[in-house]
Design the sequence.
């Protein structure tokens, strides 16, 4: 069985003492670099002479706080050793590989251990997509009741989260594809990815493909919620315009009546000389207004 060395935020001296091979300076710099809260660096899996070097990012959703953060896992792999470096994101917890390490079989080599690690990362991405879909469904349920501004802000956050997740999921899928296609080779006697390991990597690749397809579906769901919100905003505006139109219509007849009797043609307006002419004008205004209200109500405009 190969050896799995698990380090969390190691120092340069600790890392040099545990490395199975002398690694390139560029790889060493990435191994000791502090973790970030964003989707950088980009995931990769490369052959560096007699070892494999890889960087993987795992997006973790926090539904209670409506945010996503990233856990970085760097690996150095040979036939006999898998060294994983888990980095602690700012104010977060690092990736814990112990459950995966405990699931390894006695005859697992370094490449198979790496497969189990990447397969767990793929499973986490599937769970992440399910969590995001739940967030989108919850947001859609509140479109009718929540303020439009808060819904727009949450839609924007989800859209940016999906874009960042895509930037990590896509290169992870491509890196696993290179293993499946037997593109990655090392300059040593024993293969890191023998044929049985390449077949096993097919499973992880399929899960990453499913996660990527789910991510595209999530983008479509966000677009649907956005269209729903825009339709609701337009409908609310129509309701406001309808109300204003009804108010203007109600004021139209009283304005006409007041303007009619306000003309200075005394000989042609006998109502002006009536003793009850003032009450007549008010009664006419009230009756016509009530008549309009009844008409609008029957038409279900108000």
Sequence:
């Amino acid at each position: 069985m190969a050896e799995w060395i698990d380090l969390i935020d190691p120092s340069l001296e600790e890392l040099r003492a545990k490395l199975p091979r002398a690694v390139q300076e560029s790889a060493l710099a990435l191994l000791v670099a502090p973790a970030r809260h964003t989707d950088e660096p980009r995931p990769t899996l490369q052959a560096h002479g007699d070892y494999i070097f890889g960087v993987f990012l795992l997006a973790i959703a926090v539904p209670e706080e409506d945010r996503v953060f990233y856990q970085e896992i760097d690996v150095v792999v040979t036939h006999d050793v898998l060294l994983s470096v888990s980095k602690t994101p700012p104010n977060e917890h690092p990736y814990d590989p112990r459950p995966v390490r405990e699931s390894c079989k006695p005859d697992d080599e370094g490449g198979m251990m790496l497969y189990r690690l990447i397969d767990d990362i793929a499973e986490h991405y599937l769970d992440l997509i399910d969590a995001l879909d739940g967030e989108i469904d919850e947001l859609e349920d509140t479109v009718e009741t929540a303020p439009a501004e808060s819904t727009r802000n949450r839609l924007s956050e989800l859209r940016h989260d999906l874009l960042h997740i895509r930037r990590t999921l896509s290169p992870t899928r491509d890196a696993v594809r290179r293993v499946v296609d037997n593109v990655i080779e090392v300059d040593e006697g024993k293969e890191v990815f023998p044929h049985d390991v390449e077949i096993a990597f097919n499973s992880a690749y399929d899960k990453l493909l499913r996660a990527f397809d789910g991510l595209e579906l999530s983008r479509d769901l966000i677009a649907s919620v956005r269209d729903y919100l825009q339709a609701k905003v337009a409908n609310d505006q129509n309701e406001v315009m309808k109300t204003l139109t009804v108010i203007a219509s109600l004021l139209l007849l009283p304005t006409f009546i007041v303007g009619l009797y306000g003309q200075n043609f005394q000989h042609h307006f006998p109502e002006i000389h009536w003793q009850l002419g003032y009450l007549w004008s008010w009664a006419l205004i009230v009756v016509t207004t009530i008549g309009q209200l009844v008409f609008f109500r029957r038409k279900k405009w108000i």
User: Anything to note?
Assistant: Residues 195-261 form the longest helix (67 residues).
